[in-house]
Amino acid sequence: MHDLQLGAVESRFADIIWQHEPISSSALAQYSAEQLNWKKTTSYTVLKRLCDKGIFQNNKGTVTALISRADFYAMQSEKFVDETFDGSLPAFLAAFTARKHLSSEEIAALRRMVAEYEEDT
């Protein structure tokens, strides 16, 4: 796979695909016109770029995802932690919580996630 980063507008376009897949390329162009104010040629150009990146495929005018939205953003998160915090999730959380106060609900959710992870290992 190639560069899997998306700009803000590409992300909005990708979200349209993920929300409606499988979707015809003509319906995708219509959604893009309505939601992004794009011309048909723009949506086809961006679609080709995202297909070249290996995120989507356009098979005979039907567009589907090769990578789910959840998997795509999980990979982006992993890459960010790897590149910015040498892969250390505790270092990321320390930096994140230094500026943002976690609610009791968020803390409870994190504890559940860790407990579930410990049960699975």
Low-confidence stretches: none
Proportion of β residues? Answer: 5-15%
Strand order of the largest sheet: 1-3-2
Q: Which fold name fills CATH's third level, the topology of the largest domain? A: Arc Repressor Mutant, subunit A
List keywords for this structure.
single chain, 121 residues, mainly alpha, Arc Repressor Mutant, subunit A, 2 domains, three-stranded antiparallel β-sheet, 6 helices, 3 strands, 8% strand
What does this structure look like?
69% of the residues lie in helices and 8% in strands. The chain is mostly helical. The protein folds into two domains: 8-69, Orthogonal Bundle (Arc Repressor Mutant, subunit A); 88-121, no CATH class. Strands 1-3-2 form a three-stranded antiparallel sheet. Strand 2 (56-59) and strand 3 (62-65) form a beta hairpin. The two termini are 29 Å apart.
